[in-house]
């Protein structure tokens, strides 16, 4: 059985940063993730996707962000159970929790932090009759390595941030980028919409709206798509393409966590905003997996939630100790092996 102070369900950016904040309080963490490597969606789905809203980084690739987080928490020596899904949870007589994975691995901790992002997920696929026939033959739902699209004709469908961001990024990679959206208005960030419009004006992106891809053409591989325009001028366009990337978001599922007795609202776990604790004391939910009034699904919001959660966790583990978190400063932080790493160090005053 694996014992730890905080058991984190999910090894995405929020889960990884939790290790750092807990480590500053000398709390040990262990992470469970169904994926074979840390990083969550940032590693599995879009490691080469640029992220623009991490403080101090005007732009950072998702995979690089994960690498930086792993380096940041190295001194605190977190444990990992990867390639296994947290399946069941049981509260023991001593008040701690026993979490068992689908492969039978048991974990015991007084605190459980669910940082599972969107949970298990599947891409939302467009309703195109012959779509499945071209999967991995010109159709992809995620972009892991943009170099695959170097000097190719790429068509992206979608109206959210992913569709906009990848259209912008691939404009300097692919020989031709076409963005198709069923509406004239986009759901992404205004800045991204303006960049796409500017690239259209420069002739670097073909923008077709309102329209939908209705049919794929090819034999062994995709070579063209049929686009149905709507609105004032209905027409059909046959567009030669090498790659079709529908980016309509993910369909999230909480999986077994939905059966843990937690209060669920629209496939997310309800928490209070004081410390992001759920309706079960000792179980917290942070990052995209939780919901509360005003919730924003941003990585930086998950970092904030993780920070407050760790303060509350410390008080639950050590109810007889009072402390004041004063500030962080530059210096060597002591790892659990006694080594010194160059990293921020928390200055904490503890009163017995």
From TrEMBL:
Residues 5-293 form the FAD/NAD(P)-binding domain. It catalyses: 2 reduced [2Fe-2S]-[ferredoxin] + NADP(+) + H(+) = 2 oxidized [2Fe-2S]-[ferredoxin] + NADPH. It is an enzyme of class 1 (oxidoreductase). FAD binds at residues 14, 33, 41, 46, 86, 121, 288, 329. Keywords: FAD, Flavoprotein, NADP, Oxidoreductase. Its EC number is 1.18.1.2. Its cofactor is FAD. GO terms for molecular function: ferredoxin-NADP+ reductase activity; flavin adenine dinucleotide binding; NADP binding. Binds 1 FAD per subunit. Belongs to the ferredoxin--NADP reductase type 2 family. Homodimer. This is Ferredoxin--NADP reductase. It comes from Arenibacter aquaticus. The lineage of its organism: Bacteria, Pseudomonadati, Bacteroidota, Flavobacteriia, Flavobacteriales.
């Amino acid at each position: 059985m694996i014992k730890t102070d905080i058991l984190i369900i999910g090894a995405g950016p929020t889960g990884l940063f939790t290790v750092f904040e807990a480590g500053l309080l000398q709390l040990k963490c262990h992470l469970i993730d169904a994926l074979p490597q840390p990083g969550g969606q940032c590693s599995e789905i879009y490691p080469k996707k640029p992220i623009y809203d991490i403080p101090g980084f005007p732009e950072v690739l998702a995979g690089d962000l994960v690498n930086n987080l792993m380096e940041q928490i190295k001194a605190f020596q977190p444990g990992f159970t990867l390639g296994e899904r947290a399946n069941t949870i049981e509260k023991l007589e001593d008040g701690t929790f026993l979490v068992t994975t689908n492969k039978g691995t048991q974990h015991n901790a007084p605190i459980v932090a669910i940082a599972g992002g969107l949970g298990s997920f599947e891409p939302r696929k467009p309703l195109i009759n012959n779509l499945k026939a071209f999967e991995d033959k010109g159709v992809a739902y995620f972009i892991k390595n943009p170099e695959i699209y170097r000097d190719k004709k790429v068509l992206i469908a979608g109206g959210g941030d992913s569709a906009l961001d990848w259209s912008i990024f691939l404009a300097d990679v692919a020989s031709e980028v076409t963005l198709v959206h069923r509406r004239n208005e986009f759901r992404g960030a205004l800045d991204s919409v303006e960049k796409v419009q500017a690239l259209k004006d420069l002739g670097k992106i073909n923008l077709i709206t309102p329209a939908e891809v209705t049919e794929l053409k090819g034999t062994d591989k995709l070579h063209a798509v049929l686009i149905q325009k709507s609105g004032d001028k209905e027409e059909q366009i046959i567009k030669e393409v090498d790659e079709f990337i529908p980016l309509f978001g993910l369909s999230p599922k909480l999986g077994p966590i939905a059966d843990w007795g937690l209060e669920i609202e629209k496939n997310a776990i309800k928490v209070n905003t004081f410390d992001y604790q759920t309706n079960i004391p000792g179980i917290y939910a942070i990052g995209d997996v939780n919901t509360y009034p005003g919730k924003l699904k941003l990585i930086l919001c998950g970092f904030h939630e993780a920070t407050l959660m760790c303060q509350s966790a410390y008080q639950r583990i050590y109810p007889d100790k009072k402390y004041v978190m004063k500030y962080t400063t530059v210096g060597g932080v002591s790892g659990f092996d006694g080594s010194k790493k160059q990293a921020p160090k928390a200055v904490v005053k503890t009163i017995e």
